[in-house]
Amino acid sequence: MAGLAAAIRLKQVNEELEVVVLEKGSEIGAHILSGAVVDPKSLDELLPEWRDMDCPMAETPVTDNWHWMLSKGGNVSIPHLAMPPFMSNDGCYTGSLGNLTRWLGEQAEALGVMVFPGFPAAEVIFNEDGSVGGVITQDMGVAADGSHKPDFQPGMEIQAKYTLFAEGARGNLTKMMKERFDLEANCQPQVYGLGIKELWDIDPDKHVPGRVIHTQGWPLSESDTWGGGFLYHQANGQVAIGFVTALDYKNPYVSPFQEFQRWKHHPAILEYLEGGTRVAYGARAINEGGWQSVPKLAFPGGALIGCAAGFVNVPRIKGSHTAMKSGMLAAESVAAAIAAEREHDEVADYDSNLRESWIATELKKVQNAQPMVAKFGGDVGTVLAGIDMWMRQLKIGVIPAMKHHRDHEELQRADLHKPIDYPKPDGKISFDRLTSVSYSFTNHAEDQPNHLKVADLELQRESELEVFAGPSTRYCPAGVYEWVTEEGEEPKFVINSQNCVHCKTCDIKDPNQNINWTTPEGGGGPNYPNM
Fold it and tell me: Of 58, 227, 252, 501, which cross-links 471 as Cys (Cβ 3.0–4.6 Å)?
């Protein structure tokens, strides 16, 4: 969304500019997954008439808002008066972020933006002076052994005066830019949650269009983990349900997928799902670092926008409006630089303008919410986070910004914990991972190089398996990783890369940072419908 917002704004400022958007999915929106409850603030700025332009997000305004603290068998509703006013969902809309992205793609193309789905940016072009000069798309038609198949096509070289990186959370090129230009020198490390989502058709008598429910507490409270769930009543008699597990969990036996399945059986959630039918499934990592984890945004020839930089408002569970605004601000800076006949330099005013924008104002109010809960746990941490947000809202005695610890560093040895006995799926409300992946409509071309790169397989066996009991077999929501032992042989690390839904959790949570997620052949991955 940040990339499309930037493209639209560039054309609005100067329709003569040549603007290219590269999309790794098979179509615009194919890889977009979110709750979503959308704050329309940026849409109002970018396309003020969007509600009258057949935008799918306009169908379902939020009408009813609940926040529940769950215990194993019950729930307590947190009163709205206990939360600061900026936590309200009044004026927001719930719907498919994927469909909103598809609609934004149409608006961009109508303005003359060149949109290329199925072409992931795989390499960065660097000029002689070290500045970014564009990107090269992924080669097509490469066999698993590296040889060229009959349909081989080399990647396209896209040269640009400025390149905006809008890869979402934990993008592989964004990682490279952060390291090459030392963009995180003066910020806290980024931390993440894993969001798993399903779309359900439910009994019409149970459907309340615009109802928004958020939960926290059980079942994660039983494993000293934190996160929460959501249930949004959207258009066409459907509900979007999902569960976010913070990836700083310590117990290597935790399975975010299994925790989600348990959550669906809570009586308050089960009430809505019984008699319904699941129609889609997916997963994606989410930035949770907040304001103190925002890196330097601009560098010679390029900039980070959207979730590549990390602008998610964690307690509000919203990031699309801030992502879009960052793209718009970057576009305005780039357009001004080109008008001044500049290229490949650093658009430093983008960084400064963003840090003076309403993005900064909003994120600073909630910047201690995530670390408070991470440090003090779900119950005490939530109370302290609420106090901190109220203090920031009222501008009284603000607590300094708290620090973060990298998620993979928080994982503890397996011998410090007991395995978790998760219940078997019933096939009606809860499901197994491989069946679930089929509902993401994931597909990767056969006989292509593995896009999940393991740097040291021996380290993986000696540490990830023998010390941490193979957490990759549990943190992956798509069943990509397996440890297979055949008689008389060492355990073998099996990577079912064709299952990958591009959530990036392995890249984040592997205890040795031994797994590197890279882009597969264009068009590969999930094909999310209405997600």
Answer: 252
